[in-house]
Amino acid sequence: MKEAQGPEPVEGQCESRSIEKPDLRDWSACMLELSLHILDVLENSLAAGASLVELFIEKDAAADRLTITVKDDGRGMDQAQLARIFDPFFTTRSTRHVGLGIPLFKAAAERCNGGLTIASRLGEGTTLRAIFQDSHIDRAPLGDISSTLMAVILADKSDLHYVHCVDDKVLEFNTADIKAELEGVPLTHPTVRDWLQAFILDGEKELRD
Amino acid sequence: MNLGEICQQLDLAVKTETGQLDVEVTGGYATDLLSCAMAKAQTGNVWVTLQSHPNVVAVASLLNLAGVIITEGMVPDEATIEKAYEEGVNILTTSLTTYTVVGQLYELGVLGVD
Predict the structure, then answer these.
(1) Can you state the angle between helices B54-63 and A101-111, rounded to 10 degrees?
(2) A89 contacts B39? CB cut-off 8 A
(3) Domain presence at residue A6
């Protein structure tokens, strides 16, 4: 079965996505692709003060399974908070009393014969795993993951370790390693930023072909 | 036109008697994708959907919608209705399809967000 794909990013460009979403009205996209759910989860990790966020995406055709894992070393949650994580009326935001990111992601996974689990330890970090039946008709495309990654990288709040496996093909990078090689030049430097964007876009394209 | 009048005209069942059916309806939006409702529905709109799970209440509360019309005979469970009452979210139900309800609303002059 041909894999459903989101819209192709413009050659050499990533859609501009901001990591800051203070006002709900700024969020003008419906969650029509998984990359937007992932962006939401990554924002949670950054808000939790993570210094390293790890995103693993694994597409296993033989098992017909798509697995998305986000692991952070942020402040984590205690048992009381963890018990409420799927309650849409639970949020750590002070601006509103509703937090729908995780409940919606969970609903999306469950609609595809999958599910979503979260483990967390106060002071150590949180790991979220969402599983989808890859070929399920309602499984949204991954979409523009490149823009999501760039938004996190350019926010410059945490290192990002990314691993995307499609059967036996792998795209991987760790911003910590890239920074070490750059010897002080920031990732937000225009030349570095453009290189990173191209690297990610090309890498993702390779995985699809 | 207020929500109470719409309820009467469309013969909707009121699941949550919040006492605020006199809220003025500013327009309507129809989708079964909650994220789309969050992106597009406006304050005071009536949202037409066949989704009946608790997240619907959260979205309606967040957006200050006039109410949610749940179609095709779907009915939220007691816990969801209880939560809707707590949050001041009006839940109305009908056995009709979303398509028909939207048509009826449109004829009453409840227009879309476009």
Answers:
(1) 140
(2) no
(3) no
CB B24 within 8 Å of CB B4: no
What count of CB pairs under 8 Å joins A to B?
46
Closest among A6, A73, A16 to A46, alpha carbons compared: A73
A74 is in which domain, residue-wise? Answer: 31-208
Given CB atoms, is A141 within the 8 Å cutoff of chain B? Answer: no
Given this model, what pLDDT does residue A42 score?
Answer: 96
Q: What CA–CA distance (Å, rounded) separates B26 from B57? A: 19
Q: State whether residue B49 is helix, strand or coil.
A: strand
Interatomic CA distance for residues B20 and B88, integer angstroms: 8
3-state secondary structure A91-142: CCCCCCCCCCHHHHHHHHHHHCCCEEEEEEECCCEEEEEEEEECCCCCCCCC
Please give, rounded to a whole number of angstroms, the shortest distance from the CA of B12 to a CA of chain A: 26
Q: Is the pTM of this model over 0.90?
A: no
Residues of B in contact with A32 (CB under 8 A): 33, 35
**Local confidence band at A206 (pLDDT 50, 70, 90 cut-offs):** very high
Ordered domains of chain B (ranges, CATH)? 3-107 (3.40.1390.20)
| CATH number of residue A117's parent domain | 3.30.565.10
pLDDT in tens, A147-166: 999 999 999 999 999 999 99
- At A107-118, the pLDDT tens digits run 999 999 999 999
pLDDT tens digits, one per residue of B38-62: 889 999 999 999 999 889 999 999 9
Per-residue b/e over A7-20, b at no fewer than 16 CB within 10 Å? eebeeeebbebebe
Tell which of A84, A89, A96, A97 to mutate to test the B interface (max B CBs under 10 Å): A89
In terms of phi and psi (left: phi > 0; alpha: psi -120 to 50; beta: otherwise), the region of A76 is left
Overall domain count for chain A: 1
